[in-house]
Write a structure and sequence with these properties.
By secondary structure, the protein is α+β, with helices and mostly antiparallel strands. It is about 45% helix and about 15% strand. It has helices spanning about 5-15, 25-35, 40-50, 55-70, 110-125, and strands at about 75, 80-85, 95-100, 105-110, 135-140.
Length: about 140
């Protein structure tokens, strides 16, 4: 999906949820949508400052926090970066990411089997999973 179509989908989702997609949040969203790979907050800030020279780190972090809570982006803890999610309608879905250590490509996959296995193991331990992100590092098909 193109960046503008993704933005329209995000706007529609926010309207349905009663959430406010401010100008700064839209700008950060568009930068994420135009970026093919995961991107760090300070790289986003640099791109945002090209459009809005007054942008500060807090602007980006607040926007990323909102976008993350809405399920529009996922934080990749292992590389301290963010990637756009294309499953807006299900912001509570389990997240599984394949991260190429060579080129940085991130692919989001969905395996119901992995989710069920994790939940079964958690249940057996008396643990309740509220949010799940599984990160797998390796080499993508292009880089092999």
């Amino acid at each position: 999906m193109k960046a503008q179509e993704l933005l329209q989908q995000a706007q529609k989702t926010c309207k349905q949820r009663g959430a406010r997609l401010t100008n700064a949040r839209e700008q950060v969203f568009m930068l994420m949508a135009e970026n093919e790979q995961a991107i760090g907050a300070y790289d986003l800030l640099e791109k945002l400052q090209a459009v809005d020279p007054g942008a500060k780190p807090a602007t980006v972090y607040r926007a990323l926090d909102f976008l993350s809570k809405q399920g529009f982006v996922h934080k990749i803890e292992s590389i301290n970066a963010f990637v756009l999610c294309h499953h807006f309608s299900d912001c509570s879905h389990p997240v599984q990411l394949l991260i190429c250590d060579t080129c940085g490509h991130v692919e989001e996959i969905q395996s119901g089997h992995l989710d069920l296995a994790m939940r079964a193991m958690a249940d057996a331990s008396g643990f309740t999973i509220n949010h799940q992100i599984v990160e797998a590092h390796g080499t993508c098909q292009t880089c092999q």
